[in-house]
Write a structure and sequence with these properties.
This protein has helices spanning about 55-70, 80-85, 100-110; strands spanning about 5-10, 15-20, 25-35, 40-50, 75-80. By secondary structure, the protein is an alpha+beta fold. It has a domain at about 35-110: Gcn5-related N-acetyltransferase (GNAT) (Aminopeptidase, 3-Layer(aba) Sandwich), CATH 3.40.630. Strands 1-2-3-4-5 form a five-stranded mixed sheet.
Length: about 110
């Protein structure tokens, strides 16, 4: 697996980040879905195709997403179970995350589908 094979792309109109396999016709192989609540980005769904499991790609996706969130002056709200588990393993991001509050869960439940 080469470093350049996989890329993360922010698709703002879709409120998601996608993980792309450049060696497979830029196929979307994963995603991180979110909703924004003010300056808080609520990450609620992480997915990587089963065909790509066991390669650390979910971690790579979440890392890129968190870096982008921080770069844009927002903070992470970890609703997704994977993100909740990932954050404590990466303490360098501790100052960029906030606890889930009821308004975050309401925003996720009201998002357009």
């Amino acid at each position: 697996m080469t470093e350049d094979r996989f890329a993360v792309e922010h698709r703002t109109p879709e409120s998601r980040y996608v993980l792309i396999d450049r060696e497979s016709d830029d196929a979307v192989i994963g995603e991180e879905s979110y909703v924004d609540v003010g300056d808080e980005r609520v990450l609620f769904h992480t997915l990587v195709s089963d065909d790509y499991g066991g390669r650390g790609l979910a971690s790579r996706l979440v890392s890129a997403v968190v870096d982008d969130v921080v770069a844009h002056g927002k903070v992470v709200v970890p609703v997704c179970p994977y993100v909740k588990t990932w954050l404590p393993k990466h303490p360098e991001h501790a100052d960029h995350a906030v606890a889930v509050r009821p308004e975050h869960l309401r925003a996720v439940s009201r998002r357009p589908r």
